[in-house]
Amino acid sequence: MDQGEVQSFLIVFSAIALSLAVTVVILFVLFQKRKNRLLKQQARDKETFEKELSETQIEIREETLRNISWELHDNIGQLMTLAKIQVQMEGSKTPQLEEATETMGKAIQELRALSKLINPEALKSLSLAEAVQLEMDRFNRMQFLKASLEVKGDSKPIDPKEEIILFRILQEFFSNTVKHSKASELQVLLNYTDSSLAITAKDNGIGFKQKTDADSGIGLKNMRNRAKLVKAHLELFSEKNEGTQLKMTYNFVD
Amino acid sequence: MSISYLTYVIVLLELLSAIFAIINYKSYKDSKEKYFLYFLSFTFLADFTGSLLGDFFGVNSYWLYNLYMVISFLFFYYWYGSILNEVKHRTVVGLFTIIFLGVAIWNFVFESWELYHKYTFVAGAFFTLVCAIFHFWQLLNSDEVLEVKYKLSFWISTGLLLFNMGMIPFMLLSEYFDFSSNAYYIFIIIGLNLILYGCYSIGFLWTKEKYNRS
Known about the structure:
The structure holds two protein chains of two kinds.
Chain A: H1 3-89, H2 95-118, H3 120-124, H4 128-142, E1 146-152, H5 160-181, E2 185-192, E3 196-203, H6 218-229, E4 233-238, E5 244-251
Chain B: H1 7-23, H2 35-56, H3 62-83, H4 87-110, H5 118-140, H6 152-173, H7 185-206
């Protein structure tokens, strides 16, 4: 191959190699960019969908609770009041009847308290501290465990919709304590600062083994989803026989 | 042994990609790409026959190559016409087919059958290039962009794009450089064929059935 042939070969070769290289690079960049954009969008869509799903779930739950609350208050409550009056009307006042009247009175009181605590409308008129205090009183009356509430700092108003969600998270925690933990004490602390509210709830029950997020129960998952919805930071600590502790930080928005 | 026997490397590449196409036929049998199995077998046979005729019987086989070239480009246009979704794109492909046929017939009539019809190739390759770009545009604007490496049509288009991208300047520059006197140009041709059949083979080996449903 003489000088001229080498030169012409090199020219043709470089022209072709260059055009190919440029094409490959352009193709790769285009496809990669587009792919990343699509992936990001899918992630966003998924987040929106999950948020909507959580909101719908909460709505359905609140609606159910509202109906139960009305049913308890207006129907069962009325029937029990009637029963109490009927017993009181009985002429022969034996000690058993007196006791029965008293028990019925207590039952009616409990029923009203419960109906109030699960009714979202009633909760709206209460502050978070008041609602938690009612719940604590209920536990103390039932003598399941010794419950106490402590409030630090000046309480600030929270958007009622978000307040209900915070309260439902706490209720979920309380119901776990009552149902599973065999605890004898339950302490709740609401710590208000200028920018945030730190909620701590802990029991001295049997606790549970820390599980990974993937296989944690529905209750835990619900708590986390709801916390996410109001942008609260939620942490659960538990050790076997060391009790369970819930820490939640809610930031006030201006 | 003359360097021109290196062209059998290309025939071998064609055979290999046809074999890969047969092996993995079930993962694309429901798509329009299934015709590529027959097309690649046909390519291999045409090229093999052409080379044999030329090298062992001394027959000028350019008429066979020219015929093969016209059929192959028409096949690509038919294939793109069936996989492109946009009506505008399909219309353009139809237009390409007509223009290409015009060019091919013109060359068959007015050019010697004993020469390679370079301008038929340039026109055909350019139109194929545009078709491949249409197809990329379609992929980029659909969810398929996420799993594009499993899609056979993506690999075929990539191969066609790169091959024609390289061949067009090669053909056009042959006006100014005498390629027949410089045997080393065979390496460029082999390189480009390696890219083309390499892309086909990757496509046939990687593709998954669920991404090839039309």
